[in-house]
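User: I'll paste a sequence; please echo it back and then give the predicted structure.

Assistant: Echoing your sequence first, then the prediction.
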Amino acid sequence: MPTTPPLTQANPFDTQADLTDAPASALAQFAMPAPQPGGTAAPSLQSLALTQNFGALAGVKKALVTVPVRKPNSQAYVRVHPDEGWRFQAAILQLKDDGECYLVVPALYADLVDEVRPKILYAAITRDGSPFLWPINAPGEDGRLDAWSESAHVAAQMAQTHWVRLVANRTVGAYDVMQAANLADEPKWPEKTFEDIVQIAFKGRIIDSLDHPIIKRLRGEM
């Protein structure tokens, strides 16, 4: 009497090997169903991307409430307003501990000559449209200027027509000026006057009296 071969149970771990050797017709049952004609296609990644002017799409207008007084970031390209009316010389008191700048009225310059420094304030702007005031030392009474300040003025002049970046070169004791070769777009300046920008930049930081708390602190009176 013929014997019946014993039944064997398939090893689930051998399934992948079995499918690999199986003919294409046998593998068809494991394939994902193809999308049906007339079905809705998934949106492309490009169609889901939010553009840079997303604020304009929502009717949002950014209010200018803060204008820093600082030199440009060494990794940022900036422009300077070409109008000479958008810069002026002022007496600036800059604190050593945090770098914060105060605008001193001319009448107090003689009393604070050891604390303040004449600087040219340039209206500048970054690539993302954020304005700032760039203070650069003005020449002294003898007309002389240090190499750092001289190279900064050269950079500010170049920035009137090109996007530039400042990098400190400690070896030569001056700034290297990097000009962007492929940035042709023009900056979009805020809808403010230069006087408005200065008022925003120095709001609460104008020294018009020797009784100002900053002056008293520097003199050890408080």
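The CA atoms of residues 93 and 116 lie 4 Å apart. The helical segments are 15-21, 24-27, 45-48, 54-57, 147-158, 194-201, 213-218.
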